[in-house]
Design goal:
Largest sheet: 6 strands, parallel, barrel
Oligomer: single chain
Shape: elongated
Low-confidence stretches: none
Protein name: Cytoplasmic protein
Structural class: mainly beta
Strand order of the largest sheet: 11-13-16-18-17-14
Number of strands: 23
Distance between the termini: 61 Å
Helix content: under 10%
Number of helices: 0
Order of helices and strands: EEEEEEEEEEEEEEEEEEEEEEE
Length: about 240
């Protein structure tokens, strides 16, 4: 297939994969083979049985990729499910993203929610939504704003890690504050609020209000808010 060919689905049906310029799904479409395209946009419902590799992903409806997904630019306003791994270089999630294996890229902005069964690796990770990460969340800069609900990761690692409570401007009343839970949090500069962790390791560590920490190991400096609890602290 020529690279200039588009796949436009307005109704419903099953279509072959291949190489396209643009894939646009406004109806209900299934793609049965690997797809490689410049743009993959879903406004309706889509299911890709194999791998998808694209320059741009835009999900306004509901999409599922059974195997792996690779994209340079990703915008998810609806729901996206990836059965395998996802490499999304620059990602913005306002809706829901579910990944069956690992997720990685350069820049992640989460205002909706993500659920990942493996590790998540980015250069910068900025979340003001929610996340459930079964493996390791690692990034050079991690900025987590807790609005509501519970976010969790098995381990969190980075150079600079900031976790702060954020009140929702849309729903200021009737919601409990957001929380973060992790087994291990490790970095150089760490500031935490509303966080429960078994172990926190860092050079410069600030434990803010609402934290319940089992063990803090630090090399340079440790401060703890009066509205936080540390069971054991050790300078190493």
């Amino acid at each position: 297939m020529g690279n200039s060919q588009n796949l436009i689905i307005n109704g419903s049906g099953s279509y072959p994969g291949g190489i396209y310029d643009k894939v646009s799904i406004r109806g209900e479409g299934a793609i049965v083979n690997d797809v490689e395209c410049a743009a993959f946009h879903v406004y309706g419902t889509s299911e890709a049985s194999e791998n998808v590799k694209t320059g741009s992903v835009k999900i306004m409806g509901e999409a599922e990729v059974k195997k792996d997904l690779a994209a340079n630019e990703t915008l998810i306003m609806g729901t996206m499910r990836v059965g395998g791994s996802a490499h999304l270089k620059k990602m913005k999630v306002f809706g829901l993203l579910e990944v069956g294996e690992k997720l990685g890229g350069n820049e992640a902005t989460i205002k909706g929610s993500i659920s990942v069964k493996g590790d998540v690796e980015y250069e910068t990770f900025d979340s003001s939504g929610g996340f459930e990460i079964k493996g390791l969340l690692t990034a050079d800069k991690i900025n987590i704003g807790l609005r509501f609900g519970q976010s969790s990761a098995e381990e969190i690692g980075g150079s600079k890690i900031t976790v702060k409570r954020r009140k929702s401007s849309i729903l200021p009343f009737g919601r409990e504050e957001g929380t973060l839970t992790a087994q291990v949090i490790e970095g150089d500069d760490i500031y935490l609020e509303n966080t429960t962790a078994a172990v926190v390791r860092g050079s410069r560590v600030k434990i803010g209000p609402g934290c319940q920490i089992g063990l803090v190991e630090y090399t340079e400096d440790l401060t703890c808010d009066s509205a936080a609890t540390i069971k054991t602290e050790t300078k190493v």
